Amino acid sequence: MDFLLKICAGSLRIQLIFDYLESETNKSIP
User: Fold this and answer.
1) Could you say which residues of the chain have pLDDT below 50?
2) pTM of this prediction?
């Protein structure tokens, strides 16, 4: 059970990182 929670947390973190990178690249593009 703890293993599944770690996987879910990891994928959520990755999703947040990708969202952040996407917003940053959108900001840098005029």
Assistant:
1) none
2) 0.62
Please state, in angstroms and rounded to a whole number, the distance separating the CA atoms of residues 19 and 12: 11
Distance, CA of 11 to CA of 9 (rounded, Å): 6
Structural domain count, the chain: 1
For residues 8 and 25, give the distance between their C-alpha atoms in angstroms, rounded to a whole number.
26
Amino acid 13 reads R
Instruction: Give dist(CA 7, CA 1) in Å, integer.
Output: 10
Give me the domain span that covers residue 10: 1-30
